[in-house]
Amino acid sequence: MGWDRSLTDWTEASLLIQRVYQEELGRVCDFGGAVNWLAHWREGEHGAEFESWVRRQFRDSPEGRLRHGERGPDVPDPGAPPPDTPELPPASTVRVFQVTDASDGAFLPRMYSYWPNAWVSRGRAYVFAGHVDERPRFFAVDLQTGTVERLGPMVPYRGTSEGWYWDAEGWIYLLDGPRLRRVYPFGTADVVVLSIEETHPGCMLWQAHSSDDGQTHSASVKRIVNDGPYPAIGTVVLRHGRQEYFPAHGDLDESQITPDGRWLVIKEEDNNRVIHLETRDTQIIRDADGAVGHSDCGPALLVGEDNIHGACVRWDLDQPLTPGRRVELFSTWNMGHVSIRGGRCLLSTDTMLALVALDGSGVTPLLNHDMPAVDYDHQFKANLDPSGRVACYMLDSGRWDVYLAVLPGP
Fold this sequence. Notes:
Strand order of the largest sheet: 1-28-27-26
Number of domains: 2
């Protein structure tokens, strides 16, 4: 075989490749991938067995092995250890390990409470942090001994690492201009999850979030301008392969989906606009009624600071969002930041790290520190790994260093 194929043949081959991509990898075929596999088909090396051959290639790839639950011998186990693993410290202790030191160079304070900087597997935590040379560094920390292995820059993308985050399977989501990518740092798999190149030309993505099952993603859309800050004009959501856009209703701060992928929370004009992504039912929590900032989301939960009434509050999104439904977790002014993962709520303030009971039964201090911040970027903002077992944060003692705290068991 060769070039002498009909247009119908080319069309059928293209459709076959797209179908196999979706069935085997769960995503749309990118342009480069289509060209590559059509070249194999054109040369006719596999004849009538082309479909079964290409399926085998997909399944044998790092991305295919991950999707189908198979791991190569050189790929770390992507599942977090069970809660009672003997590799971790006893449930009654908090263990703190310093990850970086002066030999690693200078790091940037770009960790945020709602993006996990650590991922736990087989008694080790894998951590990344933004470096001044814009090549984020990776580390592996033994959670029993505290031994640190320096892994260097493990992905080909540059930046401060702000907005990068781990998922529960050991992949990293990161933004690349108008694209949201899912990259496997222990191999070569690199998937474009969401692109607005065609739907919003001249724009970029910012502040992405993903559901726990990886089927729903959100990000702010910013228009690229010649002078001044890029204005945020709306929020894009990719849900089960379908892209949707929610224009801003005023000054847009940020937005986030809940881990169950059901709710979109948009912060604008000091209010919270809450949209049910299945029904499109929309409710507004107004600032005067307890809209929250410095927040994070759990499944059907929104937790953050109500700066009108001086409290950290919980909103149950499955309930009508009226003032009487607001649940006060504790009183506070200038609360700090919360991180919600694995059914836990972690509180970071300028004096301590603590666990907040989501049922309102109290706050449990974990460790103390003293790092009052002069601006937002320099505030103490710890984040939980996807399993909720390890906290990652940065401290400034003349230079920024990364720390891990292994938390008490649930």
